[in-house]
Amino acid sequence: MSLQRIEIHKLRQGDNLILGFSIGGGIDQDPAQNPFSEDKTDKGIYVTRVTEGGPAEVAGLQIGDKIMQVNGWDMTMVTHDQARKRLTKRNEEVVRLLVTRQSLQKAVQQSMMS
Amino acid sequence: MDNESQYSGYSYKSGHSRGSPRDRRDRHRSKSRDGSRGDKSVTIQAPGEPLLDNESTRGDERDDNWGETTTVVTGTSEHSISHDDITRITKDMEDSAHLDCSRHLGVSLAGALALLSFLTPLAFMLLPQLLWREDLEPCGTPCEGLFISVAFKLLILLLGSWALFFRRPKAFFPRVFVFRALLMVLVFLLVVSYWLFYGVRILDSRDRNYQGIVQYAVSLVDALLFVHYLAVVLLELRQLQPQFTLKAVRSTDGASRFYNVGHLSIQRAAVWILENYYHDFPVYNPALLNLPKSVLSKKMSGFKVYSLGEENTTNNSTGQSRAVIAAAARRRDNSHNEYYYEEAEHERRVRKRRARLVVAVEEAFTHIKRLQEEDQKNPREIMDPREAAQAIFASMARAMQKYLRTTKQQPYHTMESILQHLEFCITHDMTPKAFLERYLSAGPTIQYHKDRWLAKQWTLVSEEPVTNGLKDGVVFVLKRQDFSLVVSTKKIPFFKLSEEFVDPKSHKFVMRLQSETSV
């Protein structure tokens, strides 16, 4: 499986540090409604929206990415709220994400099948 | 502008009533005595005052240990009055005699006017018959029909007036009641103008058309019925729809209530407030007002400030007092601590006494039961409620007395009143809890014995004339000697109600399992 490492520098906006994207999914959510996942039982955390010009876009995050790790913390088996908390820790200015993309997954799968 | 008005609540018949003046004065005399006794709250005790007098603040050295000795106190003590009483009674009687004259005038005027207006239609119909009977045209069925209708309309008018005006009024108002005066003037003008026309057109010219005359009389009765309708609307209906909220606060302990009233004049609103005061507000207990002395005593010692060499006294005094106040505020003040512990201690004491009282009463009530028909009992053993009450009173008397003393309620409940209440509860098969509800919490003033606490002399203090209607922001004060009720008015806001239609089929729900959070 091919993975991407993405380093996002949080942007300070008033009292908050924002990353500039939205997440969906989690073990407490309904995986059938996830438009980005290949496997409709996948309860992982996916990127559903990336704001234009935000820190995430600058760092290279794309919509539909599945986030595997955040700063070493696992994100494949977490609830939605836990995922949010791990991304929005107030004392962290930089988050390092480990993401995987569908196109890469497909390419890998295809290369594995052939 | 009149700032202060007085009125006393002696009952009298208003409107078109005729009562005999003598018994009214007798009633008034006995009530004035009671009223003045109820006014006093702190008195200078003349020597030889009876044991169970009605005043409260003498403290514990007074001998009210009827808990230990359960003999019944005779009733002669309640009617002795001291010198203060006598001077006050004569002053009251002089004042109210003066007021009574003006009130009698009003009542008799209204009565005369009513009589006049009742008899006028009859006079209209009878006078032609008496004066020029031979010249009148005969008038058969139409006239008889009109006679019947006049009779019934007058009967209805009589019943309506009796219902509306012949009522025992609740209070004496300081100023004339504007609407009533207006109605009396209207009736007077109506009757006078009818008489004028009658005199000129019919009597002078000796009109021969009797049916016309009878119809004229019927029209007067109709007009009077309409005036009666106007009276109902002005006096009764207009004030029913709530327009203002009145807040009444008692000045001594802050007990407050809110009331909704409609369009009333200030004096009528004052009477309304008083009617509700007697059954809503807990009874005024002067013993509960002050902080215990131990808490306050520390505040007495203050700072002494000396001025050196300054001649300008006025400036200095304010500066001095400010300095004293500031210094006192800065000093470490532990009186709140003492207050807190004192309160907690008092609370605990009250609860303990209350528990003892409840147990004693419960036990006392188990000693008697109602006589069933099939029980064969010796006639000597059968008691009436009074004797039954006396029999079980002894066992609870001490606990009751101690409890009342702790909660400072002992002036409100004499032994006789407790016995009477016990007898009442036994007669009606009440449980001990029902017997005790009267003593465990301070009830409204009207619950206590009428002679003592229902003082009817109130003073209305207001910056605006008291016949003015209520408006937003009006404040008036109802004063008694020891406390006063401050009443302020607020207008009920205008509500803008809008409609929203919800289709019952539109209530649909989904499980919220896919949420999106932006980070």
TrEMBL record, chain A:
Q: What SUPFAM superfamilies would the database entry show?
A: PDZ domain-like
**Can you say where in the cell this protein is located?**
Cell membrane; Cytoplasm; Nucleus
Q: Which residues form a coiled coil?
A: none
Q: According to its record, how does it sit in the membrane?
A: Peripheral membrane protein
Listed under GO cellular component are: adherens junction; basolateral plasma membrane; cytoplasm; nucleus; postsynaptic density; postsynaptic membrane
Q: Is Methyltransferase set as a keyword in this record? A: no
Give GO terms for biological process.
Answer: cell-cell adhesion; establishment or maintenance of epithelial cell apical/basal polarity; neurotransmitter receptor transport postsynaptic membrane to endosome; neurotransmitter receptor transport, endosome to postsynaptic membrane; receptor clustering; regulation of signal transduction; Wnt signaling pathway
Report the superkingdom from the record.
Answer: Eukaryota
Give all residue intervals belonging to the PDZ domain: 5-102
A Gene Ontology molecular function term of the record: protein kinase binding
Is Chloroplast one of the keywords? Answer: no
Keywords carried by this UniProt record: Acetylation, Cell membrane, Cytoplasm, Membrane, Nucleus, Phosphoprotein, Wnt signaling pathway
The record's CDD domains line, in alphabetical order, gives: PDZ_TAX1BP3-like (cd10822)
- Quote the protein name from its UniProt record: Tax1-binding protein 3
Which source organism?
A: Apteryx owenii (Little spotted kiwi)
UniProtKB/TrEMBL annotation, chain B:
Tell me which UniProt keywords the record has, alphabetically: Cell membrane, Membrane, Transmembrane, Transmembrane helix
- Residue stretches of biased makeup (Basic and acidic residues): 55-65
Q: Which domain of life is it from?
A: Eukaryota
Q: Name one GO cellular component term.
A: plasma membrane
Q: What would be one Pfam family of this protein?
A: Strabismus
Compositional bias (Polar residues): 1-11
Q: How would you describe this protein's topology in the membrane? A: Multi-pass membrane protein
Q: Which InterPro entries match?
A: VANGL (IPR009539)
Region annotation (Disordered) maps to: 1-79
Its localization reads:
Cell membrane
Residues passing through the membrane, by range: 105-126, 146-165, 177-197, 217-237
Compositional bias segments (type: Low complexity)? 67-79
Family affiliation:
Belongs to the Vang family.
Q: What is this protein called?
A: Vang-like protein
